[in-house]
Design a protein that fits this description.
The complex is a heterodimer of chains A (about 450) and B (about 180). Chain A has about 450 residues and is of the alpha/beta class. Chain A has 17 helices and 14 strands. Chain B has 5 helices and 7 strands. The chains are: A alpha/beta (about 450), B alpha/beta (about 180).
């Protein structure tokens, strides 16, 4: 007779037939990923300023290195402050998991390194941040990765560029600098029809305005330096995995579906299922290449992201009012802002960016290059610098700065031609922002 | 047995009852904090296999795990002798965790049901990537609680906050100190 203690005395409840009510984006921005500190009860996330974490014993150490149990080893791979930010961005994007990196560019590189082998290729919209065009077009080829740039506003151009070496499609949801909106649904259809993931850089839209995973994206990348942190004081990048892409559907992703020599024969997408990509990007790409986010950086970004919804509301309303002001100004030739009815992206904006068209846009002066240069020199409140997504209003001439390394053709294709001025509208008093542009235009 | 369970590739049966698409945190926490002994069907002696990972983790969290695999019967894995069948485990089994493919889950479930009174089994759990609605229906009619397409290791780690350490979205929002589903 077997001794059978009554152990289920609490009883097992009936399964819920409906998912737990998920929280709103404002709640997630403040809470997701953060835990009451188990050691001290600290409510604010502590800055775990440490390189390393003590093992219980040799067996525990071995289990951690084998990824058989969960825990921290070394802050190059993971850190308790950084992981709060990772989980928070994953939650905001509606994803399964996330990996942070030192910068958006680092996150982008680690993502590519996780998916691409030598000789592989990908297709990217040419409506990109200039630094991404340079990274994809100039530095990636040195690693044996080819980027086919296509017209981001025409989904057919992605289909036409498809070939057997292509491993993903890349675009920006709301493209820098010219407020071009990518039609995510057809791009996702094309990618999935060819058995490859769609990767979306959601930096300028932020999850407050658009969640690309809801429209079929498989991976989402952020430069957290921009609106996520939002205060222009900290660098950071994040890649979010949707958890929905079936890596086993073909043989295009051996790094995820075959035993991995870089990690003693683990098959990442099998062992970790729907967060296999996240585990691989962290345990191999981040471990081996090393562009880690610092704990203090993660803490700064966590402070910032708590107010993301509040800031984005104001960024968007200020930006729309400024765009309307400029659009009506006699010295302004054109304004490219998806929030304006005159924008060719107005309709796509209504679909993908329901709460506003963001805060970054471009315009051109009737006086051309010289007038633009004078405007940048005449502003007082606007800061002339190479960033976007700051609380402060920012202005720059992309052709001579952020997009400088591109050819003239590439500049025009990227919406950064010689007469183009880019602004990132801040959260200052609207009248003050407009007054500054007004005085600068008077002097131009 | 060396089955490759491929998550995300579950056969989508439109007739599948929706209620097994989701389990509340309360249900999962209640199961994982009550159960003490687990028969792991489809155990592997190879340390790279997911079933080995899960067994090792569950042992570390205090569960008594009985490995089951007719092809490896008599061999040892992680300090436990592998049994060929559930009925040959010489003690009670609170929960059976099926680490086989969805098709094989039906026959295993029938075996669990046949032995449930003898072994005191109350939970039938099918691994991440394993779902068999016919098996679930039979087991529920026999009075078992059924969980499908979940990994007890991952759920334990999620509910205790460990999964978040790797940037995984736990979907847990709380301003209380988070405690894992450990035994009282």
């Amino acid at each position: 007779m077997i001794n059978r203690p009554k152990i289920l005395n609490k009883g097992i409840e009936k399964h819920d037939e409906h998912p737990d009510e998920s929280h709103g984006i404002e709640t997630l921005s403040v809470h997701a990923g953060a835990r009451v500190d188990p050691a001290t009860g600290s409510r604010s996330t502590p800055i775990y300023q440490t390189t390393s974490f003590v093992f219980d014993d040799s067996e525990h150490a071995a289990e951690l290195f084998n990824l058989q149990t969960f825990g921290y080893i070394y802050s190059r791979i993971s850190n308790p402050t950084v992981s709060v930010l990772e989980e928070r961005i994953a939650a905001l994007e509606g994803g399964r998991g996330a990996v942070a990196a030192a910068t958006g560019h680092a996150a982008q590189f680690l993502t590519a390194a996780t998916l691409l082998e030598q000789g592989d290729a990908f297709i990217s919209s040419s409506n990109l941040y200039g630094g991404s065009i340079t990274q994809f077009g100039t530095s990636f080829p040195k690693l044996g990765w080819t980027c086919h740039f296509v017209d981001g506003t025409d989904p057919h151009s992605f289909e036409a560029a498809m070939n057997k070496n292509v491993k993903f499609i890349f675009c920006e949801s709301l493209a820098n600098p010219g407020s071009v909106i990518c039609d995510l649904e057809p791009l996702s259809d094309i990618a999935h029809r060819h058995g490859v993931p769609l990767i979306v850089d959601n930096t300028l839209a932020t999850p407050y305005l658009c969640r690309p995973i809801d429209w079929g994206a498989d991976l989402v990348i952020h430069s957290a330096t921009k609106f996520i942190g939002g205060h222009g004081n900290t660098m950071g990048g994040v890649t979010v995995e949707s958890g929905r892409f079936d890596w086993f559907q073909n043989d295009k992703f051996p790094g995820l579906t075959k035993p991995d020599d870089a990690y003693h024969g683990i098959t990442f997408a099998e062992t970790f299922g729907d967060f296999g990509f996240t585990m691989k990007m962290r345990s191999v790409a981040l471990r081996d290449f090393g562009p880690t986010m610092a704990a203090t950086a993660a803490w700064n970004l966590l402070q910032g992201v708590e107010t993301l919804p509040l800031r984005m509301e104001r960024h968007c309303s200020n930006a729309l009012a400024v765009a309307e002001y400029l659009n009506a100004h006699p010295k302004i030739g054109w304004v490219s802002y998806a929030g304006l009815r005159t924008s060719p992206y107005f309709e796509l904006g209504k679909k993908y960016l329901r709460k506003g068209a963001g805060a970054v846009f471009t315009f051109g002066l009737t006086g051309g290059y010289e007038a633009g240069k004078n405007l940048v020199n005449s502003v007082e409140l606007f800061s002339h610098l190479a960033n976007v997504g700051d609380t402060r209003s920012l202005i720059i001439h992309p052709a001579s700065t952020t997009h400088r390394q591109l050819t003239e053709e590439q500049k025009i294709a990227a919406g950064a031609g010689p007469d183009v001025i880019r602004v990132s509208i801040g959260i200052e008093t609207l009248d003050d922002i407009i007054a500054d542009l007004k005085q600068a235009l008077t002097n131009t | 047995m060396g089955n490759t369970i491929k998550p995300n590739t579950l056969a989508k049966n439109p007739e599948s009852p929706k209620r097994h698409d989701h389990y509340s945190d309360r249900t999962l926490r209640s199961i994982l904090s009550s159960v003490r002994s687990i028969a792991l069907v489809g155990a592997s002696t190879q340390w790279r296999r997911p079933s080995y990972y899960a067994m090792k983790y569950l042992q570390r969290k205090g569960y008594k795990v009985y490995p089951i695999n007719p092809l490896r019967a008599g061999q040892e894995v992680l300090g436990e002798v592998i049994h060929p069948r559930i009925c040959e485990v010489p003690s009670s089994i609170d929960m059976v965790d099926i680490f086989r493919n969805s098709e094989a889950a039906l026959d295993i479930s029938k075996e669990v049901i046949a032995n449930k009174d003898d072994k005191g089994t109350q939970v039938l759990w099918m691994q991440l990537g394993v779902r068999n609605d016919t098996a679930a229906k039979l087991a529920e009619e026999a009075g078992l609680t059924v969980i499908m397409n979940r990994c007890p290791k991952i759920e334990f780690a999620r509910l205790s906050g460990e999964l978040g350490w790797y940037g995984i979205n736990s979907k847990i929002i709380t301003s209380k100190r988070l405690r894992g589903p450990h035994h009282d």
